[in-house]
Design brief:
Elements (H helix, E strand, L loop, with lengths): L1 H28 L3 H7 L7 H5 L13 H13 L8 H12 L7 H12 L4 H13 L6 H9 L3
């Protein structure tokens, strides 16, 4: 009797898992962007899956303000899932640096990337150079934090 319950449990668990994966793929391949943006947080995928096929967000021009807005909106949906992902913060910094005069999101992206890449000497050096070139765009509070860690 007990093994029969385990078989049913396994059977229904597999069915639920298959349905959930089909639902996730439906969201990923859905052409309706508003639906995709609203439900993307429920899927198990991180930002890199949405950047590639079928959305092709990584191929959009960053010179266009609407494309930057769409990319930023999509990346913001994944922020909790990718807090410790260096590639995520690097992509976000690249997008935010195109409009650093208009918003200060690039400071947050830079700070997170700067802290996460402390052990990567080459990337850390590149970020130091970026900070020096864009020194005027940072707030006084973030300048102090960066200079404290600038060793």
């Amino acid at each position: 009797m007990n093994t029969l319950h385990y078989k049913y449990l396994l059977k229904y668990s597999l069915i639920i898992l298959i349905i959930y994966n089909l639902f996730s793929l439906f969201i990923l391949f859905n052409p309706i962007k508003s639906l995709k943006n609203a439900i993307w947080e429920l899927t198990p995928y991180d930002y890199s899956f949405g950047m590639k096929f079928p959305n092709n967000l990584d191929k959009k021009s960053l010179l266009n303000k609407t494309n930057r807005g769409e990319l930023t909106l999509f990346l913001d949906k994944n922020i909790n899932r990718n807090l410790l992902n260096i590639n995520y913060w690097n992509k976000k910094l690249i997008i935010d640096s195109y409009s650093k005069q208009e918003n200060n999101d690039f400071e947050k992206s830079f700070m997170n990337l700067f802290i996460l890449t402390k052990n990567n000497k080459q990337k850390y050096l590149d970020l130091k150079k970026y900070f020096i070139v864009n020194y005027n765009y940072f707030s006084e509070e973030n300048k102090k934090k960066i200079l404290e860690n600038y060793n």
